[in-house]
Amino acid sequence: MTPRRYKGKVSPSLLPFGRRFRRFREAKGWSQENLACRARDGEGVTPQYIGAVETGRTRCTLEFAKEMDRILETDGELVTLWEDLVKDAAFPVWFDWVNVEETTPELVAYSLGLIHGLLQTPEYASVLLYGNQDAVEARMRRQEILTRREPPPPGCSFLIDEAVLQREVGNPKIMYDQLHRLLEISSSDLSIQVVPMRGDHLGSIGSFTIATLEDLREVAYIESVARGFTMEDSEDVAAMRKALREVRALALPIGMSKDLIRRTAEERWKT
Question: Which of 39, 110, 125, 199 could pair with 120 in a Cys bridge, judged by C-beta atoms 3.0 to 4.6 Å apart?
Fold first, then answer.
């Protein structure tokens, strides 16, 4: 399912904060890249994150506002603006999960029913999206974050329930190619582990993805039949973290996971 865009639901108070933030940056004569490399005591953030704050696409933390206030020498004004405009912004940090994927440095996902969208082949995605080529192309564009050069791709960890390897989507050839795609894309920065089929863990309730943002906050995403939900509430994220710990404890090591994926492709799906 392609995440929907809810631009009308962005809290309007994030926009004036972002515009004022941008003016402070421009007054210094700095580009987004210049400011980004100064953040977090020199560790930096991505320019995309600075852009997201400036355009109201994310709600930064008070700590980030204080740091920018110091770097930009705004004499407390950014902090005051944060208190007035950002602290009680009515809507979640992100209104579009695609923006999270594009800017996060780390993603971890558990898939209970289907291959995660970032790992799907065009043919597998086409079956799930009922042949809607615009939607398929959009999903393929999302996957570009995994191979881009700048900024570096996010570190990704994908946990896949064993049943996903057995569940036919389309036809055997599509499944064979999809499983080999998993083998091809697995790397040191993108790990794939299989979770043996069993129902006595919290992951059996449903799939989820957790992103760690530039300022180390976490945002989670789940899907329903109606639409996807992006959540930042600490209790919601903590619940998913608990489920993730259970799932990871059951997951096969990476090498054994690859062997199982390869064996399933050859024994079940090869025609």
Answer: 125
